[in-house]
Amino acid sequence: MIFASKMPSLRIDQSDLKCKNGCDYFGNPQWQGYCSKCHRELLQRQRRAEKASSATLPKPEQKKPERGIKLASHSSFSKFEEKRLRQSETLKKANLLKFSVFKKSSTDEHDHTPERKPPEFKIPALINEGMKREFRVRFTNLPPQVDRDARVFVHSFIMDVIKCSNVMTVDELSERVQRHYQHFMKYMDTSPHFANAESEIKELLIDFVEKHAMTYLHDLPGVVFSPIGTEDERLDRAMSERIQQLSWVGEKHLECKLDRTDSACSQLLYKAISELLAVDGAAGPGGKLSRVRRACRHVLALCGASASADDLLPALIFTVLKANPPRLVSNINFVTRFCNAQRLMTGEGGYYFTNLCCAVSFIENLTAESLNMDKKEFDCYMAMPASIGGSTWAAALSLCGAAREAAEQRAAARALLADVATLRAEADLLAANADSFEKEIAFKVNDVLANTPLEIKPRREPLRLSSLRNSSIPLIDLETPVDTPAPMKPSEDIPQIKLPEIMPVEEPVTVTFDRTTDEKITQNIIDFQSLEKPSPPKSPQNQPWELKQTGSFELLTPSPLGFTPFDSRSIDELMTPDDFGSDHLAPGLSNINYDIDLSDFSGDNSLAEDTPKEPKDPFSPDGIKKEPVFDPFQPQTSQSSYKNVLEKFDEFSLIDSKSNETSEAFEVVHRTQDSCTPAAAEEPGDPFSPVQKEASILDDSGSPTSACLLPSPLQPQTR
Amino acid sequence: MKVVEAKIVVLGSQGVGKTSLVVRYIGKMFSKHISPTIGASFFTCNINLEDARIKLQVWDTAGQERFRSMAPMYYRNANAALLVYDITSANSFASIKGWVKELQSNVPDPMILSLVGNKCDLESCRAVTQSEASQYAASIGAAYCETSALHDQGIDQVFLNTATELLKLSSSSLVASLRSYDSTEYDEKLPIGIPSEERATHTGKIELPAWSSEFKLGETQKNMCC
Questions:
Q1: pLDDT tens across B195-222, in order?
Q2: A 544-583 residues with CB below 8 A of B?
Q3: Shared domain check, A532 and A471
Q4: pLDDT digits over A394-429, tens only?
Q5: For the residues A526-544, what does the mean pLDDT come to?
Q6: CA angle, corner A671, sides to A717 and A629, nearest 5?
Q7: Residues A203 and A244 occupy one common structural domain
Q8: In a domain, A400, yes or no
């Protein structure tokens, strides 16, 4: 503690302070009692001696063993130290261990190459980057040369300090650092780059430079922070113990007007203490200073409205006693030595720092008199174990800590609550949106349905089948839809034709159609299905039929897939003996069938096909056998009418009824064009169209099933 | 315009009204900046003279006797000192003498001293006569002034006088710790170590000039340019 010995109580006779060499200068304990000049000369002599004897003996090791060991931790920066270390290494194998511990980066070199050149010390690029970034943010108006200058300066500054740190005492190093600051300031004053800069900007710049250089150096062990060769660390411990011992010192002893029962008071104290504790965490001297400043402001607020220096100092002492900041002495010394002296001497930070120094000094030299108490009592207190004293304040502070934690938790909870509220609001909004959207859609659907009645559906085949069977209506009726060329129109045409036929059979169905919601549509479809099912059993031939229907579905699927309808894969895979009525037929034969069928029935529209198919089915029993082959393509035809439903399915898969295995998913190809375009244009080219026609023969089974099949994959499996 | 930055330290026994004096002065100049609810012991203020501006940093000190030993830390590098005593207390005046001796022995640089007798509104209780005080002030080369922080009397005079003296000081002699922004005085503005007893014993900064000769100026300059 530098200031400690300034205390009058510690005054020493002047003769004791003179240099040991007897020159007229003052000596310094850190220079072993020499003045700096003599000490430096001594050091140089020693160094020369070391160099001379470097090959033989590790003199420095013997001289200052504790220093040599410590140096190992950061000596990679100095040629000198490395040499020294290598000597010790060759002599003592045990030192190798130290090397590997402290110098991971260069151990390999150390082990094998005695003549290796010293590792080039590089300042991490991180510093440069960090400086660049911060410069851009903080000094937007300054030209880039200034940025560059600052970085170059920091670089040379760091290098120089590291280089010197091993050969200089702390105070020499401190002087050098101060010189660097001064030179930078001078440079700023003279260089054209800084011509436009205000003096405030310059001060900010020097702070900026100091911050970056020192932040880096601070973290290097033993270079600037509690450097080697000083007793900072020991003093830290001593101070910490001392403060612990003095924990019984209360506000009354120091005569500061603190009210321990006042919660605001203890909260301020808590804040001040936490700032003081944070001093150690700050890397640069500037950062440490600002922490001290903040702490002192809290302390000042603690003292009350009319606080003055008379109140500040005792309160600060009290705060330091309660805080017991880690590495207090090291921090203070670090700031005193390496903070830009200009700032330390002046300004608020300097003032408060001085106060802190005073407080520390006071604590260090605290006696019974300084507390205005009886010597005996004081001794008694000091003899008391540290754990006893200061319980009231400790309790108050821990309460404060708890209160603060609680406040933080409360704040967090409040934030969460707010989040929940916003979430809820958003959810409500979403629900409202959904509602309105639903209504809108419903309205639109209603609208659309009102404009275009849904009578399309009655036109479906299942109805006809049943009606056909019941009423045996002649083909003529069914052919009429074939004549209707446009697939889009059927809505109008069909109702005219079909409704009369269907009406008797399924009145309820038509009623449901009028209703508009989607659900009902699907219901309708289901209704259809249910209607269909009963129909097949009526005819005795239906049993094989149905089987074939299912087969047809399986075959159906490939057709939408491919433009190669006779793809061997589709047929081979799907054709099972069951599918085809004749087991003995080879798959190849079925292919032949396809071809024939194509040629026969080319020229039919997809929509139109539906209708003709139906009538033929019941009449031609022969066709039934072929059904499975041709049915596959039917769904396309029926698609047009069920487009709205079908479009919802992009793919579907079939489940093999026997093995219950699901086949590959099939993509549904929506072909609007096919259905819309007139048959004449595409059909001859379309491989599908003929097939569809053939399917039409089998219509009974094909069309209804297909209709139901595609939308609902449930159906096809039903056998 | 010339700008002089100076540090002024307020010394005196406890209860003589050091802080009130300063607060009264500063508070009047910058009523906005000083919140009446928060105490303060560090102030800055600018005093504009005819051809220069003096930036004053006022360091208030703790007056308690037990902190007396810490005073050197406060007045180190100070350029001026306000020696405040209470005219109703002979003791406070006596302690001023102690302060002056200490300053004279510890501070090598010329310093502007101002002897301030505060609480002159309590004329009836006066314990230190005006003549005695002024005589003493003259003997130590200090300006003498009686003030009343309560009634705001004479305080401006004290600071203005100090500022004028500081300006004179900055132009007449080379005071290292007195920083002034004059284009020709850059070398002077830096607080180079002051050869004072207490510093020499602990930090050895007395050796600074020797170092400066060894320090290679070209080195850093060169580094910075490349």
A1: 222 222 222 222 223 233 333 333 333 3
A2: none
A3: yes
A4: 777 777 888 888 989 999 999 999 999 999 999 999
A5: 46
A6: 45
A7: no
A8: no
User: How is residue A35 written in tokens?
Assistant: 């003045």
Higher pLDDT, A306 or A320: A320
Cβ contact A284:A427 at 8 Å: no
Q: What is the pLDDT of residue A530?
A: 44
Is the pLDDT higher at A65 or at A376?
A376
Phi and psi dihedrals of B2, rounded to 5?
Answer: -85, 135
> Is the pLDDT score of B64 beyond 90?
no
Compute the distance between CA of residue A344 and CA of residue A285 in angstroms, rounded to an integer: 10
Q: Is residue B60 within a helix (H) or strand (E), and if so which, with residue range?
A: strand B52-60
Q: Which domain holds residue A321?
A: 232-389
Beta partners for B44? B57
Residue A202's domain is classified under what CATH number?
A: 1.10.246
**Average pLDDT score over residue span A445-456:** 80
For the residues of A509-524, what is the DSSP string, one character each? HHHHHHS--HHHHHHH
Q: Are residues A382 and A480 in the same domain?
A: no
For B2-181, the fitting CATH number among 3.40.1350.10, 3.40.390.10, 3.40.50.300, 2.40.128.20 is 3.40.50.300
Q: Are residues A646 and A711 in the same domain?
A: yes
Instruction: Please report the pLDDT score of residue B41 as a whole number.
Output: 77
Give the closest residue to A611 by CA, choosing from A711, A700, A503, A708: A700
How far, rounded to the nearest angstrom, does the alpha carbon of residue A244 sit from its chain's CA centroid? 44
Q: Which residues pair with B9 in a beta bridge?
A: B59, B81
Q: CA of B165 to nearest chain A CA: how many angstroms apart?
A: 20
Q: Same structural domain for residues A107 and A129?
A: no
Burial class (CB in 10 A: 0-12, 13-18, 19+), A449: middle
pLDDT of residue A472: 53
Give the number of beta-carbon pairs within 8 Å between A and B. Answer: 174
Residues 266-325 of A with CB under 8 A from B: 300-301, 303-314
CATH number of the domain that A247 lies in? Answer: 1.20.1050.80
Residue A395 exposure: Cα atoms within 13 Å on the Cβ side: 8
The answer to whether A179 contacts B211, with C-beta atoms less than 8 Å apart, is yes
Task: Say which residues have a Cβ less than 8 Å from residue B132's Cβ, sequence separation at least 6.
Answer: B93
Residue type, A50: E
Residue A3 confidence (pLDDT): 45
Phi-psi region of A713 (alpha: psi -120 to 50; beta: other; left: phi over 0): alpha
Are residues A186 and A245 located together in one domain of the fold? no
Contact criterion met (CB below 8 Å) for A466 and A500: no
How distant is the Cα of B42 from the closest Cα of chain A, in angstroms?
Answer: 6
- Examine the domain organization and report whether A173 and A303 are in the same domain: no
Q: Is A189 inside any structural domain? A: yes
Q: Does a structural domain hold residue A452?
A: no
Interface mutation vs chain A, best among B24, B60, B67, B84, most A CBs within 10 Å = B67
Residues B121-133: tens digit of each pLDDT:
888 888 888 898 9
In chain B, what are the domain boundaries? 2-181, 193-225
Q: Which has more confidence, B6 or A557? A: B6
Assigned token pair, A370: 């300084």
* pLDDT of A51 over the 70 cut: no
CA atoms within 13 A on the CB side of A49: 12
State how many domains chain A has.
4
Residue in A with minimal Cα distance to B102: A8
B85: amino acid identity, one letter:
Y
pLDDT band at A693 (very low <50, low <70, confident <90, very high): very low
A450 lies in some domain: no
Please report, rounded to a whole number, the percentage of residues in chain A having pLDDT higher than 70.
49
pLDDT higher than 60, residue A654: no
Same domain? A255 vs A379: yes
CB contact under 8 A, A199 and B73: no
Q: What is the pLDDT of residue A717?
A: 45
Residues ≥6 apart with Cβ < 8 Å to A419: none
